[in-house]
Amino acid sequence: MTTTTEIADKIAAEQNLTEAQAKTIVEAVFKEITNAASSGVETSIPGFGKFKVKDTPAREGRNPATGASIQIAASKKLTFTPAKTIKDALNV
């Protein structure tokens, strides 16, 4: 697993930044993606992919412990669609 700190450390080393500067940049990027998603706006990063918000309708589910029917509320979820470059890199 790669963490935010590990990503920031790699960026700091490659771009001659301090680890604190790189971590601030990484966190700012994630914050902007979160802000866009909260507003329902798609975020597209060319060569990487797209983050989109999708509505999940209300549905009926089952409690696995009791088998009783329960109503699951409608919600929003964040989806990621990788760019062709990423798909190709994964399937080499």
How do the strands and helices of this protein lay out in sequence?
Layout: H1 4-15, H2 19-38, E1 43-45, E2 49-56, E3 59-62, E4 69-72, E5 75-82, H3 84-90
Antiparallel strand pairs: 1-2, 2-5, 3-4
Helix pairs in contact: 1-2
Short characterization:
With 92 residues, the protein is α+β, with helices and mostly antiparallel strands. It has three helices and five strands.
Can you tell me about this structure?
- The chain is an alpha+beta fold and 92 residues long.
- It folds into two domains: 1-41; 42-92, IHF-like DNA-binding proteins (HU Protein, Chain A, Irregular), CATH 4.10.520.
- 42% of the residues lie in helices and 29% in strands.
- The chain has helices at residues 4-15, 19-38, 84-90, and strands spanning 43-45, 49-56, 59-62, 69-72, 75-82.
- The protein has a three-stranded antiparallel beta sheet. A two-stranded antiparallel ribbon has the order 3-4.
- Strand 3 (59-62) and strand 4 form a beta hairpin.
- The longest helix is centred in the N-terminal third of the chain and has 20 residues, at 19-38.
- The relative contact order is 0.12.
- This is DNA-binding protein.
- Belongs to the bacterial histone-like protein family.
- Keywords: DNA condensation, DNA-binding.
- GO terms for molecular function: DNA binding; structural constituent of chromatin.
